[in-house]
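R.M. (postdoc): so does anyone remember the format we settled on? I'll just put the structure tokens first.
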């Protein structure tokens, strides 16, 4: 994909990612929010989103989604990032609004285009996260 097309995609996705994060921030301290009670994002979420792309490239989309959605305590935290990606993809009309899980959706709709859309959403989320406060 030419560089200009990627930039145009990000120009659309970053504001959507920001909106998803802003909505998530309103629920700070709740189980589904990545924001703590002080309205800051714990630093661990930087590493979760940063390592996601490498995980997809190295292990494949379904393996990366499974790893980031498992039932361990860390998996529950990582799943919050997967839920943010899901919301970004819904807002950008890349997946149906009634989709409840990226993992479940990818099992029946796995394609190169889905992988690309998820990776683009991950980049937008990572960039949008930088506009919010992180724990010190």
């Amino acid at each position: 994909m030419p560089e200009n097309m990627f930039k145009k995609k990000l120009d659309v996705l970053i504001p959507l990612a920001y909106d998803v994060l802003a909505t998530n921030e309103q629920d700070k301290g709740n189980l589904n929010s990545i924001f703590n009670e002080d309205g800051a994002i714990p630093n661990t979420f930087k590493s979760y989103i940063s390592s996601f792309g490498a995980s997809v490239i190295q292990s494949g989309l379904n393996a990366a989604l499974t790893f980031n959605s498992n039932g361990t305590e860390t998996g529950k935290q990582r799943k919050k990032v997967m839920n943010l990606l899901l919301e970004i993809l819904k807002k950008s009309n890349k997946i149906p609004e009634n989709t409840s899980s990226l993992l479940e959706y990818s099992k029946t709709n796995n394609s190169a285009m889905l992988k690309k859309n998820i990776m683009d959403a991950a980049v937008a989320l990572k960039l949008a996260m930088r506009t919010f406060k992180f724990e010190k």
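R.M.: ...and that's the designed sequence above, right after the tokens. Also worth knowing: The mean pLDDT is 91. The helical segments are 3-26, 44-59, 61-67, 73-91, 102-109, 112-129.
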